[in-house]
Amino acid sequence: MNKIFIDGKWGDSESGQVYLHRNPADLTRVTGTWPKSTVKDTRAAIDAAQNAFESWSRLNVFKRAEYLKKAVQIMSDRGEEIASLITLENGKILAEARGEVNAAINEAHHHIAEGLRVVGPHESRPVSQDGMLAFAIRRPLGVAGIITPWNFPFNVASRKMFPALIAGCTGVLKPAQLTPGASAALVKLFEEAGLPPGVVNFVTGSGSVAGEELVTNPAVKAISFTGSTEVGTAINAKAGATMTRTQLEMGGKNATVVLADANLEKAVEAICLVGYLCSGQLCTSTSRVIVEKKVYDQLLDLMVRRVKKMVVGVGSDPKTTMGPVCGEQQMKDILAGLEKAKREGARLASGGNRLTGNGLDKGCFIEPTVLADVRSEMFIAQEEVFGPIISVMPVNDFDEAIEVMNNVKYGLSSSIYTNDMEKALTFIEKADVGLAHVNLHTAAREPQFSLAGVKMSGFGIPESGHTGIEFFTEHKVAYIKYRL
Ligand code: NAP
Ligand code: MG
Predict the structure, then answer these.
(1) How confident is the model at residue 298 (pLDDT cuts 50, 70, 90)?
(2) Are 118 and 466 a contacting pair, CB within 8 Å?
């Protein structure tokens, strides 16, 4: 049986209760038994983090960096093992899981380097008085609660933990119930790197129990959450009561705009790559394609041909190009979203069904799906149906494309395919998103820059970039009169 990790010790929940985790590629296969952490367990984890905070935060940032560099080294040595675990739990294919581990390594390097640049006394500026010196000091907030989703179970937890830890915060990590093992693997890296007891703690189980305690416990000074807009909004309302700082990375309804002058082959490759990557369960997946009518039929035809080449199957099989979706509930939600889209008049150009042949009947497999003739007012064009579904929406011109693109409550990512410089730059100017791409897919990003969703996609100081550490710190300015 798997364990939770409190104050440097692996153990069971005080309740003794557990839940079973099942492989999304074969629901008859139990992949692990996990503790259902209670409020009491979570409080013990928060207390341990609180007790460890004083000495961890006082440690020189270069010393903290040494521990964390060691953890990244172990991460990289153990990459293949971690990738297999991600595939087993989440379903994504091995190549995608390896990509997730590599992304985590890059993010971790970035945060360690950034921490060495800004944590502690780090910035002096000229001041108006003679004989005076002033400098800014960045110091850690305290205990951080880290609440993560199942779609990138390793990288999301990692890219929150590294900035928190280098900043001098201690943490309690609560992963999604669907993917606790990938987070446990991360916690083991920190343990093996020798981080002192209590610096990193780990509780599994329900968000509404363990997660809720993290959000409402006044000893927790920062909540970094990635997940749905619905849960993020509720967390923010509760955290407000104790003035707890929140960082909310939430859902998206990302669009790629394709203009008539675009390189259609390249556009289709990009759209299908990130529309179906991780079975469309990427926060930055392309779920809408907004295309000028002049090239609508041609684009649809290319998309359907591209989709026919895909091989859906078990993620550990090297021939597979798309794995299952992550769990039974997820599969039901996606199929219900598809039914609703069809009822509202969307046309099925390709896919649209659960796959049960060739031994896939025990898993959560859905065909890569292309929906044509989708209109802005339809449910499928407005809500994040987190699965392998791309909605194609015809428009008359560039202006209408921008209007349709922005006509959603989300604002995570958008891209445009065109060679018209004026339109490309106007798109960047007008897109209400945190990530705007030209001739690139909607998931392109680098850890040096913030992952900053706007509207209902993001709230608070965002992850990554220079803001990743900013979130876990507060500012103090020292003024020194050295000549009276
Ligand atoms: P979710 O249902 O919102 O859950 C996210 C986490 O919150 C889980 O650990 C969950 O625990 C926990 N939780 C649930 N209720 C809670 C509560 N009342 N208090 C505290 N914590 C609670 O999201 P998901 O289904 O795991 O992930 C998919 C979503 O994540 C999508 O919307 C996707 O767009 C978004 N996402 C966004 C980004 C980004 O950077 N913007 C990146 C990746 C994913 P349980 O496991 O118990 O439910
Ligand atoms: Mg959920």
Answers:
(1) very high
(2) yes
Rounded Cα distance, 284 and 259, in Å: 21
Give yes or no for residue 451 CB within 6 A of ligand 1: yes
Q: Is the CB of 249 under 6 A from ligand 1?
A: yes
pTM of the model: 0.98
Q: How far is the CA of 436 from the centre of ligand 2 (A)?
A: 26
pLDDT score for 350: 98
21, 90, 107, 151, best to mutate for ligand 1 pocket (most atoms within 8 Å of CB): 151
Judge whether 443 lies within some domain. Answer: no
CA–CA dist 215, 189 (Å, integer) = 25
Q: Is the CB of 313 under 6 A from ligand 1?
A: no
Return the pLDDT at 262: 98
Q: For residue 77, what is the domain's CATH number?
A: 3.40.605.10
- CB neighbours (10 Å) of residue 47? 18
pLDDT digits (tens, 9 = 90+) for 196-236: 999 999 999 999 999 999 999 999 999 999 999 999 999 99
**How far is 102 from 392, CA to CA, in rounded Å?**
32
Q: Where are the alpha helices (DSSP H) in 320-397?
A: 328-343, 379-382
What pLDDT sits at residue 175?
A: 98
Q: What is the pLDDT of residue 285?
A: 98
Atom of ligand 1 nearest to the CA of 227: 30
Q: List, for residues 383-428, the tens digit of each pLDDT value.
A: 999 999 999 999 999 999 999 999 999 999 999 999 999 999 999 9
- In a domain? residue 341: yes
Ligand number with the minimum distance to the CA of 227: 1
Check which CATH number belongs to the domain holding 416 and give it: 3.40.309.10
DSSP type of residue 210 = I
Q: Is the CB of 436 under 6 A from ligand 1?
A: no
- Catalytic site residue 192? no
Question: What's the total number of domains in the chain?
Answer: 2
d(CA 401, CA 398): 5
CB of 122 within 8 A of CB of 85? no
Q: Which ligand is nearest to the CA of 283?
A: 1
249 annotated active-site: yes
